[in-house]
Amino acid sequence: MIKSKIKNRNLSHEDAFNLSELFKLMKPRVMSLVIFTCAVGLLMAPNIIPTKDAIIGIILVSIGAGAAGALNMWYESDLDALMTRTCLRPIPMGKVNRNQALVFGISLSIFSVIALDYYSNRISASLLLFTILFYVFVYTIWLKRKTPQNIVIGGAAGALPPVIGWTIATNSLTFEPITFFLIIFFWTPSHFWALSLYKSDDYKKAKIPMLPLTNGVESTKLNIFVYSLTMLPVIILPYAISFVGVTFLIPSLILTIYYNYLCFDLYKFKKNKFDAKKAKSIFGYSILYLFLIFVLFLVDKTL
Question: Could you read off the pLDDT of 192-208 as tens digits, one per residue?
Fold first, then answer.
């Protein structure tokens, strides 16, 4: 009897451990960004839906994003094992095998899309399905190992959650939520290329053609700066179409100009060399920057 209880207790601990490792496959940090941007898209919509429906919708979009993350880890487990940034993920550590990750990712993908279609609407479910397929097949399988433009094109998948949030609330797709998409889409390259500068050894080991390896440090610094400058018209666009007011425009422009300064400061460093500390600062600030921009959307609507 006592042995049986101990055995059952051990099994329950093991099950909890496996669930926690499966959850890690879903890239919780990325999911938190998806939850936030999706919620902003939903809250910025002109009409209000019941709180329960909103919460269910956001959770299902997050599950869909997590499913894409799990499938990404399934396909890239060989690369993850080579990189210090990713070698502690569940599959390289042997805590989850590739088949488990594949089944988990596919199951969550099917569930999230069907459930979103049922609880919300067909447009939202279709966009979620497109996001998952694009991230897995276009970015992960096709682009990532073949072109340094992987981040540029692949960034479309990460830019869609706030658009899906809007469609959950409105059951329609208008020009306003496209501004959310454009902000994240044009933000992504400078964010990831800053990371790729000081993690270039990792990408070299994994033979991933990131910009510093294919085009060199100088070209990467220039591209980071140029893409940071594209954020200026993109940030002005929501104001230009009367989607937001000056409460959004002025602070977001200040944040963007400071981002431009950081990227220019990195660019003007010694030719064909970079300051790792400055690259890390850009990567860190870019995360805060995107968060604050979406907070400003909510502040503007509230005021």
Answer: 999 999 999 999 998 99
pLDDT of 91 reads 95
User: What residue spans define the domains of the chain?
Assistant: 21-172, 174-303
CA angle 66, 70, 71 (to 5 degrees): 120
- Closest Cα partner for 189 from 270, 282, 79, 97? 282
Using alpha carbons only, give the angle 238, 160, 291 rounded to the nearest 5 degrees: 60
User: In 3D, which of 210, 191, 209 has the Cα closest to residue 266?
Assistant: 191
Range 21-172: architecture per CATH: Orthogonal Bundle (1.10)
Ordered DSSP codes for 118-177: HHT-HHHHHHHHHHHHIIIIIIIIIITTT-TTHHHHHHHHHT-HHHHHHHHHHSS--HHH
First to last CA, the chain: 64
d(CA 179, CA 177): 5
For CA atoms 11, 17, 20, 25, give the dihedral sign.
negative
Q: Dihedral of CA 277/283/288/293: which sign?
A: positive
Triad 117, 118, 122: Cα angle to 5°: 30
Q: What is the pLDDT of residues 92-138, one digit of tens each?
A: 999 999 999 999 999 999 999 999 999 999 999 999 999 999 999 99
What is the DSSP code (8-state) at residue 280? H
Residue 59: partners with Cβ closer than 8 Å, 6 or more residues away: none
CA distance 225 to 122: 39
d(CA 35, CA 61): 8
Distances (CA, A) of 111 to 29, 70, 74, 106: 21, 14, 18, 9
